Amino acid sequence: MSWLGIDQFLPTSGLSLEEDMLVRKLLLAHDPDGRHLDSELLLQAIEDAMCCATSLDIACDVKREDDIRQAGVVGLQEPLGVTIHRISSEMLCLCFSQKNMCARTLHVFDLLCYYAWDAKVVLVLAAVSMSYAELCLVIQLSPWNPLAKSVAILKQLQPNSKAFNRRLKALSSLIMKMLDMAKCIFKFTNLSISHLNPDKEAIETIKSNICLTAFWIVRSSLTSYSHMNDLMTIKSGCTNSSAIAIWELSSLAYTLTNLYSRLKRLVDGLIHRLEEKVEQKLVSLFRETRRDNQEVLTTLFSLKDKFPLKEKCSQAKVGISELTGKVVMFLISKPEFPSPEEWLLLVHQANNLPQNKTLEGNYDIVWVPISSSCAWTDSEDRSFDYLSNCMPWYSLRRPHLLSPATVNFIKQSWNYKEEPIMVVMDADGAITNLNAIDMLRIWGVKAYPFSSSREEELWEAENWGLHLMLDGIDQLLTYWIEQGKNVCIYGSDDLGWIKEFHSKMEIISEGVQLELVYVGKRIHHAQMMYIPANIHLHLSPTRIRFFWLRLESMRKSKLRLGKTVNTDQTLQEVSALLDFDEKDKDWAIFGKGSSADTIRLQGNRLVECLDKFPEWGQNVGKWGLLNAFRMALEPAVLDGPCSHTDTIPFEEGLAEKILFCVKCKRPMKSFLVYE
Questions:
Q1: Cβ of 397: how many Cβ atoms within 10 Å?
Q2: Largest CA distance in the chain
Q3: Strands 421-425 and 394-396
Q4: Omega into 449 within 30° of 0, i.e. cis?
Q5: Strand pairing partners for 364?
Q6: Which of 272, 346, 375, 585 fits as disulfide partner to 580, beta carbons 3.0 to 4.6 Å?
């Protein structure tokens, strides 16, 4: 084969006879033994090195530095650095071999026979890019670093000459083109397509082209080594030899460009056809009955990445097999969450309860960020990197690779409209809830398995009261409720009203056990920071936001279940509080422990009632704070007893409680009735 003799067959997607014979030779030297290299991670390191080597900015950003330092070849005992150095030394020696270039290239493949195709290419690229980067490092540092200057002199480098710089630039372009080709190979080898029944002929064509591409990458790497060695012999005035060398490198880069274009066209065409299959399969998958969730998860997320998930603790890449037999909750949102408090509340509720330990291993949350546009922006990338490293659950590792067919399916079938949702899939791959985000905000892990039917069950067992309003927000609040204490929750951003209200409540609390909790407003204002310092419990701005977010979720959940304000007490109470906030009204709610009995008041009526405490306060010891409050607010409507009776189920301690008539508001006598 001539050095540039492949132009004649580039226009076709098949291989010429000469190419076919070369591929057969390469396959004879291909005997993988299962050793595994993280090609993606090493490619990232190579790209970082080349970007820094060709940039004047010494402070180039190196991504995933710690991961790269720990990378190695699974199945090989020697460190990765030793392997790369050994390959580099072998290729440098081949520069002085008497063999022709094809024979030298095949010798390198013999050396790499036990590796997969992507690993062969990446290891060779790592060796040549490392040598090139070391050369550039000496050149960049030599003007001001004595050690670098001494090394440059020993290597007899003359980096200030025009011939040297032009040749170095041509060499850089060639290596960057090899890097593009390696990325294309990895793009194919990282596909997960067996479940989509791909075109076998197309697959074999691509594999043959990958063999050929790998050959030319190795051959070009050997050529690069020769030219890096020649750079040490360049003398001033040697323009002819330099011009020939630059032409040789440029011609080789042109050849690689043609090979790359052909391989890219084949791979992109295959992916396009597979995406069409994904779109069709997703529609049919959710109509079928399955034994597990693996086929569904693979179709959704694994087309372009065999390891589509980022592990929640170590940040390692993992496959969807980690989700086998589990309930999976897909948190779908934009890469930039609407507010930090919204995702902090989800984290808080998903990890705050003891039930989380007992249910650990039964379910997992996977964050699926979807860009608002066709292409991801730098801002979205930064936001994703930050949040995915903070969240205590899985996230898509490279969300920009998510198949367009999957994105369209999520938007159309799961009704994603850019507001965060949580779609729940059971262990068999069936969708049991199209949005469980409100369930998680309200009940946390107690909502497991997060299905729509579970949501209805939870509401049937739930009553309006302090426990529902404040559950899980703050440990001290939880303790007060468990102890059955009187608690007053109030909200306002009017400093004058807050001071007046607080002074009156201080008078009441002198003779009554009463805890005050300030919850401000949904939108935090600066003046909310200047409320009286002696309030019993001043929640942080974040926990105040938690309180309001949970109320919003309660209203959304009730409305989604078809409830109305006229027929549902909880929805009525929640809507009233949210309306107070929207209309900038001052309000307070009084409750006792886990009881469903509460009193809600707002504005002037609340202050007027507090002013009359000397009149009704004497009844607190006999009837309790809430009943005394209620008697003051709603005086008896009849002059005498109404003779009304009411039968309620027996519970422990009920005989000692004082119950009030709903008609005349007077205390009722209690009797036990046996059936």
A1: 19
A2: 120
A3: unpaired
A4: yes
A5: 328
A6: 585
Share of the chain above pLDDT 70, in %: 83
Best CA proximity match to 444, nearest among 540, 529, 348, 536 = 348
Q: Which of 457, 431, 428, 427 is nearest to 332 (CA)?
A: 431
CA nearest neighbour of 403 among 288, 261, 277: 277
CA distance 387 to 450: 23
As a whole number of angstroms, the distance between CA 236 and CA 122 comes to: 35
Q: What is the pLDDT of residues 357-415, one digit of tens each?
A: 667 778 999 999 999 888 888 899 889 988 888 888 999 998 988 989 999 999 999 99
Alpha-carbon gap, residue 227 to 34, rounded angstroms: 34
If we measure between CA atoms, which residue out of 212, 112, 132 comes closest to residue 176? Answer: 132
Under DSSP, the state recorded for 425 is E
Beta bridge partners of 527: none
Other CB atoms within 10 A of residue 582 CB: 10
The pTM of this model reads: 0.81
What kind and span of H or E run contains 549? helix 541-560
CA atoms of 594 and 464, how far apart (whole Å): 9
Under DSSP, is residue 486 helix (H, G, I), strand (E, B) or coil? Answer: strand
Helix (H) or strand (E) holding 117: helix 117-141
DSSP state of 659: P
Tokens coding 415 = 């009704």
What three-state secondary structure class fits 616? helix
Over residues 134-158, the pLDDT tens digits come to 888 888 888 888 898 888 888 777 7
d(CA 308, CA 476) in angstroms, rounded, equals 41
Q: Residue 455: which of 481, 469, 471, 435 has the closest Cα?
A: 435
Cα–chain-centroid distance for residue 400? 12
Distances 277 to 196, 199, 266 between C-alpha atoms, Å: 7, 11, 17
Instruction: Measure the CA–CA gap between 11 and 32, rounded to whole angstroms.
Output: 31
> Residue 332 is which amino acid?
I
pLDDT of residue 457 exceeding 80: yes
Structure tokens belonging to residue 82: 């030793």
Closest Cα to residue 596, out of 460, 461, 465, 462?
465
Q: Are the CB atoms for 466 and 492 separated by under 8 Å?
A: no
